[in-house]
Write a structure and sequence with these properties.
alpha+beta, 3 helices, about 20% strand
Length: about 70
Amino acid sequence: MQYLILLITFFICSFASEHKRILFISSYDRSFPTVKKQLQGIKEVLDDKIYLLQMKWLKISLLLVL
C-alpha cells in the first residue's frame, strides 16, 4: 500500500511545476529499518532532479493512548 501511495505521488508530481514536490508519509518512526531503505531509494532515483522532499510521520502511539 505504501508503494502505491508513493507511485501516485510521483505521478502527480510529474505534472507539477519545475520544482517537484514530494510528500513522504510513514506510519513508522524514522529509525525503523525499512523507512531508511525507502528514503534511500527515493533519493537514489531523484538524485539529479530538483525536488522538495517533505516527510511526515504519523504518531500512532498518541492515537492508541486516546
